Amino acid sequence: MSAWKILLTDGLSDTGKAILTSKNIAFDDKKGIEAKDLLECIADYDALIVRGRTKVTPEVLAKASKLKVVGRCGVGVDNINLEAAKEKGVIVVNAPIATTIAVAEHAMALMLAMVREITKADSGLKAGIWYKNEIKGNELYGKTLGVIGFGRIGSTVGSYAKAFGMKVIAYDLVATPEQIKEHGGEPVSFDELLQKADFITLHVPLTDTTRHMINAGAIAKMKDGVRIISAARGGVIDEIALLQALESGKIASAALDVFEKEPPLDSPLVKHPKLIATPHIGGETQEAQKRASADIVNEVLAALEGEPLRWRVA
To answer: pLDDT value at position 1?
Structure first.
């Protein structure tokens, strides 16, 4: 049995657990562990594997006397205090490519459900209402999709959209215009994207730069009747501004998989008839979770063994 000991706090696919078992790595699966209990036990572990629920705070890291690496089973690391990890000398890694297809497909599903009013048609029929004449949807064909964040997921959504006959324009904080072109997008400025897009889909991490990048000022620059999709991170959109724009008709409809506060059960935005809401399930496919668990386990083990890392975040 290896000397390493790993804590799992948000669950892990059997694929990842099988890798740990095959290598005789000790691990404890404490899915759903409360913050106070995490503080009490974290000192026993060399590695911590989380998803989006567990908050890896400075307090947790301060108690983690043996901790060498935190692995995020997925992409976003906004639930991990990277500065505190760096100060503590704890490596942070993620699994950024495993959920690309799942999230991109979910963004397209939200877009299609929105324009064809799938949720209204389904709930109506189940309630005995035949909306044959009331529902007149819109087509994606010929429309302009603005992709904010043209990395792995954003560019994949762009390729799917082009298959539907959409024009794809893109803005990215990091990628060069040449890189955007290489991945099939037309590079534009942020303001130009807001002004030209019929649909806007967001695929950026939550940072100080991206927080509320879609706010009242940005919305004012958009076309009347624009449609918004986000399967990125809650907080990228100012939800108060979005709600006001849905109520005024400036934004025709929106579809969100992520929210500033999750779960957003009391949110008036979630209850708005022009919004389609899903509970942060963009990456939740069986295939994606198998890939993510294998990727993060292998990356965490590489960090423990001092081997080269593919996806070091901090």
So the answer is: 55
